[in-house]
Specification:
The complex is a heterodimer of chains A (333) and B (259). Chain A is mostly helical and 333 residues long. Chain A contains 13 helices and two strands. Chain A has one domain: Ferritin, core subunit, four-helix bundle (Ferritin), CATH 1.20.1260. Chain A has a two-stranded antiparallel sheet with strand order 1-2. The termini of chain A are far apart. The chains are: A mainly alpha (333), B mainly alpha (259). The structure holds fe (ii) ion (FE2) (3 copies). Chain B: One of its GO terms (biological process) is phenylacetate catabolic process.
Chain lengths: 333, 259
C-alpha cells in the first residue's frame, strides 16, 4: 500500500452521541454508504487525514517512477522497453489523478510538492530500496503493484468521492502492471540458470519490504480506527498483509521460487499461511529517512523541481504575455 | 511494385535507409527515456514518456522491416542490441546529450520538423510496407511536433532566463541539423526508385517551419556555418558508445538469453 501509517488528528473515535448535529449527520451519511463530495461540509480532521493519505499516495506514484525508470535505458528488448515506459507513464498519470483528487480538498499541487521536498510528507517506504537487476523490474510489478492493489481495491469504496473514483481507474492499470511484472519473471525463470538466480535474488530482496508496505500491525491504533469509521480505510494492515501473502505464495511456487521466510507454513485451520514478521526496526529507519535510497530518491525529486523552475517560470511568463496581448488586441478591436 | 519486394532498388541501399529511420527513432527514444521521473513538471514526464514510447514503437517497425528485407534472420531486437556503434546509422543530432530541459526540447523540435516532412513524403513511397509505417508514424510525429513547437515558442518568448537557455540550445544544436539534408548514394538510389524523398528536397519545408517557429519564439535563426556529419555512415560522436553500453548491457552480458 502506498499510504502507510496515516495519522488522524483525534485522540479517540467519537460516538454518534458525542457529536454535534452537523458532524453527526456527516457520520450518518458515511455509515449509510453515501459518498462525500468536495463542496460538502466535512470535519476538519476528515479533510486533513484525506489530504495526508491522498498526497502520500500521489507522492508514492511519482517517486515510484525512479526505481523503475532506473532500468528503462537498460531494458533487454524493444518490447520490454516499451512496456516499462508505458508502465512508468501510467504511474505518473496516477500521481496526476491523485494530486487532482487532493486538490479538491483545498491544497495545491505545489504545496504538496513543497511538503514532499522538505520531508514533511512521506511516500511509501518501498521506493527507498534499489533496483539492482532486471529481475527487480519484474519483482516490483508482481509484488509492489500486487501489494498496492490489495490496498487500493477496497479504496474504490472509500467515502470520499474523488478519491474513490480515482482508485477505480488506477486499480485497472495496477492489475495490468502486476500481470506484466509476473510475466517478466515467468520468462526469466524459464531461461538460463543465471536468469533464474537473478529472479530468486530479486524475491529475496523485495519480499520483506513488500510486506512492510502494509505498515505495522494497527489493531490498537486510534488513527486506523478513526480512518475506518470515516471509511477512508476499510481493512486492518494485518488483514491486508495476510491476503497478500495468501495470494502471492502460490504464485512464487508456480515460478519455482523460494519465499525467504523460514516461518512460512500453510495453516489448514485458518485457511491461510502463517508467516514471519518483517524487520520493523528497518522499516522505521526507512520511514525516518535512513533507507538505502531515501537520499537519492528525494534528492532526485528536489533536483527535478529546482532544475525545472526556469521552465515553469518561462511558461507562466509566456501565458501572462499572451493574455496581455489578447486583452490589448480586444481593446484595440 | 507488389509482386516482388523492392525489385528496382539496390538492397544494400534500402537496408541502409531502413536502419537510418529505425536508428533515429531508437536513439532519440532512448535519450528521451533518460528523463523518466526527472522532468520539470509531471505533465512533461508523461509527455516525454509518451513520445519515447511512440519512437520505440516506430523503431520496432523500421528495424523489423530492415531485418526482414535483409533476409539473414535478424530481428529488430538483434539489430538494436547486437550492432556496434559503427553499424548504427542515426544522425548525430539524436545522440546529443539531453542537457537541460530546454536543450532536450530544442533537439526534439529540430528533429520533429524534419521527421514529419520525411514521413509525409514516405507516405507515397512506391513500397507499400514503407508507406504503411510512415502513415502510422506520421500521425504520432505530427503530435510530437505540435508539442515541441509550442514549447519552443513559449519558452523562447517566456522569461529572459528561458529565452537565454533556448537560444543557447539552438546555437549548440544548429551545426547538427545539416546532416538531415545531405544525401548520399543510398539516398539517390531510393529517390530514383520512388521509395523515398531526396533529403535535400525536405530542406525548404523544414526551413519554413523552423523559421516561423523561431520568429514566434523571438529566437534568432543561427547562420548555416560548418555542419557536423557522419552518423548516417556510422561515424558517431563519443556519446554513442556510452548509449550502446547502457542500452545493450543485458543482451551483451547474457548472450542468447531470452527476456
Ligand atoms: Fe500506480
Ligand atoms: Fe498506487
Ligand atoms: Fe503500477
Amino acid at each position: 500500500m502506498y499510504a502507510q501509517m496515516v495519522k488522524t488528528d483525534g485522540a479517540c473515535v467519537k460516538s454518534l452521541e458525542d457529536m454535534e448535529p452537523q458532524e453527526r449527520a456527516f457520520q450518518e451519511r458515511i455509515d449509510a454508504g453515501q459518498k462525500i463530495e468536495p463542496k460538502e461540509w466535512m470535519p476538519e480532521g476528515y479533510r486533513k487525514t484525506l489530504v495526508r493519505q491522498i498526497s502520500q499516495h500521489a507522492h508514492s506514484e511519482i517517486v515510484g517512477q525512479l526505481p523503475e525508470g532506473n532500468w528503462i535505458t537498460r531494458a533487454p528488448t524493444l518490447e520490454r522497453k516499451a512496456i516499462l515506459l508505458a508502465k512508468v507513464q501510467d504511474e505518473a498519470g496516477h500521481g496526476l489523478y491523485l494530486y487532482c483528487a487532493a486538490e479538491t480538498l483545498g491544497i495545491s499541487r505545489d504545496e504538496m510538492y513543497e511538503q514532499l521536498h522538505c520531508g514533511k510528507a512521506k511516500y511509501s517506504s518501498i521506493f527507498n530500496y534499489p533496483t539492482l537487476s532486471w529481475a527487480d523490474i519484474g519483482a516490483i510489478g508482481w509484488l509492489v503493484d500486487g501489494a498496492a492493489i490489495m490496498n487500493q481495491v477496497p479504496l474504490q469504496r472509500c467515502s470520499y468521492g474523488p478519491y474513490a473514483r480515482a482508485m477505480v481507474r488506477i486499480c485497472k492499470e495496477e492489475s495490468f502492471h502486476q500481470r506484466q511484472g509476473f510475466d517478466v519473471l515467468a520468462k526469466m525463470v524459464k531461461g538460463t540458470p543465471a536468469q533464474k538466480a537473478m529472479v530468486q535474488d530479486a524475491l529475496d530482496r523485495w519480499w520483506w519490504p513488500s510486506l512492510m508496505m502494509f505498515g505495522p500491525s494497527d489493531d490498537a491504533s486510534v488513527h486506523s480506527a478513526q480512518s475506518m469509521a470515516w471509511k477512508i480505510k476499510q481493512n486492518s494492515n494485518d488483514e491486508l498483509r495476510q491476503k497478500f501473502v495468501d495470494q502471492t505464495v502460490p504464485q512464487a511456487d508456480y515460478l519455482g521460487l523460494t519465499v525467504p521466510d523460514p516461518e512460512l507454513k500453510w495453516n489448514e485451520a485458518k485457511g491461510g499461511y502463517d508467516f514471519g514478521q518483517p524487520d520493523w526496526k528497518e522499516f522505521f529507519e526507512v520511514i525516518a529517512g535512513n533507507g538505502p535510497c531515501n537520499a537519492e530518491r528525494l534528492g532526485a525529486r528536489r533536483k527535478a523541481w529546482d532544475d525545472g523552475a526556469w521552465f515553469r517560470e518561462g511558461l507562466a511568463a509566456h501565458a501572462t504575455k499572451a493574455e496581455q496581448r489578447r486583452t490589448a488586441g480586444q481593446a484595440a478591436g | 511494385m507488389s509482386s516482388a519486394p523492392f525489385p528496382t532498388v539496390d538492397q544494400a541501399a534500402l537496408f541502409e535507409f531502413l536502419l537510418r529511420m529505425g536508428d533515429n527513432a531508437l536513439i532519440l527514444g532512448h535519450r528521451l527515456s533518460e528523463w523518466c521521473g526527472h522532468a520539470p513538471a509531471l505533465e512533461e514526464d508523461i509527455a516525454l514518456a509518451n513520445t519515447a514510447l511512440d519512437l520505440i514503437g516506430q523503431t520496432q517497425l523500421w528495424l523489423g522491416l530492415a531485418g526482414e528485407m535483409e533476409g539473414k534472420g535478424r530481428t529488430a531486437d538483434n539489430l538494436a542490441y547486437l550492432r556496434d556503434a559503427t553499424e548504427f546509422r542515426n544522425v548525430l543530432l539524436v545522440e546529443r546529450p539531453n542537457g537541460d530541459f530546454g536543450k532536450t526540447l530544442m533537439r526534439q523540435f529540430l528533429f520533429d520538423a524534419w521527421h514529419l516532412s520525411m514521413l509525409q513524403a514516405l507516405r507515397s513511397s512506391a513500397d507499400k510496407r514503407i508507406a504503411d509505417i510512415a502513415e502510422k508514424a506520421a500521425k504520432e510525429v505530427a503530435y510530437h511536433l505540435d508539442r515541441s513547437r509550442d514549447l519552443v515558442i513559449r519558452l523562447g518568448d517566456g522569461t529572459a532566463e528561458s529565452h537565454r537557455r533556448m537560444r543557447e540550445a539552438l546555437d549548440d544544436l544548429w551545426p547538427y541539423t545539416g546532416e538531415l539534408f545531405i544525401g548520399d548514394a543510398a539516398d539517390e538510389e531510393l529517390a530514383a526508385a520512388g521509395l523515398g524523398p531526396a533529403p535535400e528536397s525536405l530542406k525548404a519545408e523544414w526551413d519554413g517551419v523552423v523559421g516561423e517557429t523561431l520568429t514566434e519564439a523571438t529566437l534568432k535563426k543561427p547562420a548555416d556555418g560548418y555542419m557536423q556529419r557522419g552518423g548516417k555512415r556510422g561515424v558517431h560522436t563519443e556519446h554513442m558508445g556510452f548509449i550502446l553500453a547502457e542500452m545493450q548491457f543485458l543482451q551483451r552480458a547474457y548472450p542468447g538469453a531470452t527476456w
